[in-house]
């Protein structure tokens, strides 16, 4: 089975399979790739890291054998990875899949990655390691709210969009300003105006026709129950020991993007003596529910989105009715 030929002027198809954590995205994706000419690309900011298998709900080896995932398990947790990096990597993988006459199936819950893939991102100056280390040291002494106050003085527009404890985005906004003298909001304004800014202008247009799907249990209580059950299951499978091994490496810190992943940050605080084990479990579940809420909020504003109940016994059939089968599949 192969994708039907596209006319030269037409963009190839791709599928965005989105949804909150624990909503059943992977199960549906596996069904699709086993029946149709599709290849999975993971859209998950935690699955990229090696050694973070249990807490990220990384597909097990048997699932990966039946349905290989691209862009997982390729980066050390000490390394950084941006949404712009993801866009570059995802477009490369998508081009390779399309060249083989198959359909890219992008699956995950990191909504920023989906947005940047679709819309592009301001081409900002490269990371400045020295400035970043200065900011981390300052945050350790003064706290992130103090850095938020500093950002409010030099870039009020960016500060207004950020939570005072949003370490990753505060760090990047101040890093850009200290490195270039130009506020992050000005870089974004230049992108919207198409004027570039010394490091390039707007990203190239997205070269695909996406079909946007979102799966989620219709009842929010069911989703919350699934989140709690999965967190306890991960603990039973050795999640705490997984984080302990990362904690004991000595080269990781709770300020790194990898260790700020939901569940990992709570387990790290437990290992640091800031939380009891019971508190870690409770806060880990609460944080995962909050993540799901943010993901759903993103999805509610997504254009041309098809919502699907992940518990619907006819889920696969309903997905197939949405896909333009005569054009996409043959």
What's the arrangement of secondary structure elements?
Blueprint: E1 13-18, H1 25-35, E2 38-42, H2 61-66, E3 69-70, H3 83-99, E4 103-107, H4 111-119, H5 129-142, H6 144-154, H7 156-161, H8 167-180, H9 184-193, E5 209-216, H10 220-236, H11 239-247, H12 264-271, H13 277-300, E6 305-309, H14 315-322, H15 325-328
Parallel strand pairs: 1-4, 1-5, 2-3, 2-4, 5-6
Helix pairs in contact: 3-4, 5-6, 5-8, 6-8, 10-13, 11-12, 12-13
| Class computed from helices, strands and strand pairing | alpha/beta
Tell me the span between the first and last alpha carbons: 6 Å
User: What percent of residues adopt helix (DSSP H or I)?
Assistant: 40-55%
What's the number of domains?
Answer: 2
CATH architecture of the largest domain: 3-Layer(aba) Sandwich
> Which range does the strand content fall in?
5-15%
Rg:
21 Å
For the record, what is the CATH homologous superfamily label of the largest domain?
Answer: P-loop containing nucleotide triphosphate hydrolases
Secondary-structure element series: EHEHEHEHHHHHHEHHHHEHH
Please count the helical segments: 15
**CATH class membership of the largest domain:** Alpha Beta
Largest sheet: 6 strands, parallel
Write down the CATH topology of the largest domain. Answer: Rossmann fold
């Amino acid at each position: 089975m192969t994708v039907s030929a596209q006319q030269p002027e037409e963009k190839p198809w791709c599928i965005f399979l989105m949804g909150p954590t624990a909503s059943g995205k992977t199960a549906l994706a596996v069904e699709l790739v086993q029946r149709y000419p599709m290849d999975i690309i993971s859209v998950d900011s935690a699955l990229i890291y090696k050694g973070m298998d249990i807490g990220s709900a990384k597909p097990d080896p048997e699932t990966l054998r039946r349905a290989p995932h691209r862009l997982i398990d390729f980066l050390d947790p000490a390394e950084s990875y941006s949404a712009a990096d993801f866009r570059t990597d995802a477009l490369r993988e998508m081009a390779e899949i399309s060249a083989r006459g198959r359909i890219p199936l992008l699956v995950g819950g990191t909504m920023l990655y989906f947005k940047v893939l679709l819309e592009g991102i301001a081409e900002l100056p490269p990371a400045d390691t020295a400035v970043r280390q200065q900011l981390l040291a300052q945050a350790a002494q003064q706290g992130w709210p103090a850095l938020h106050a500093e950002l409010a003085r030099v870039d009020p527009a960016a500060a207004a969009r950020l939570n005072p404890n949003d370490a990753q985005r505060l760090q990047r906004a101040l890093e850009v300003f200290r490195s270039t003298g130009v506020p992050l909001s000005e870089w974004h304004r230049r992108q919207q105006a198409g004027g570039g800014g010394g490091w390039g202008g707007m990203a190239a247009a997205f070269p695909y026709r996406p079909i946007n799907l979102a799966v989620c249990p219709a009842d929010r209580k069911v989703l919350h129950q699934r989140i709690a059950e999965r967190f306890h299951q991960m603990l039973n499978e050795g999640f705490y020991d997984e984080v302990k091994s990362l904690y004991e490496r000595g080269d990781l810190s709770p300020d790194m993007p990898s260790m700020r992943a939901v569940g990992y940050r709570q387990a790290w605080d437990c290992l640091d003596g800031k939380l009891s084990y019971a508190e870690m479990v409770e806060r880990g579940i609460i944080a995962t529910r909050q993540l799901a809420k943010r993901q759903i909020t993103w999805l509610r504003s997504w254009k041309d989105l098809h919502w699907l109940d992940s518990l619907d016994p006819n889920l696969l059939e309903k997905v197939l009715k949405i896909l333009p089968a005569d054009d996409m599949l043959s």
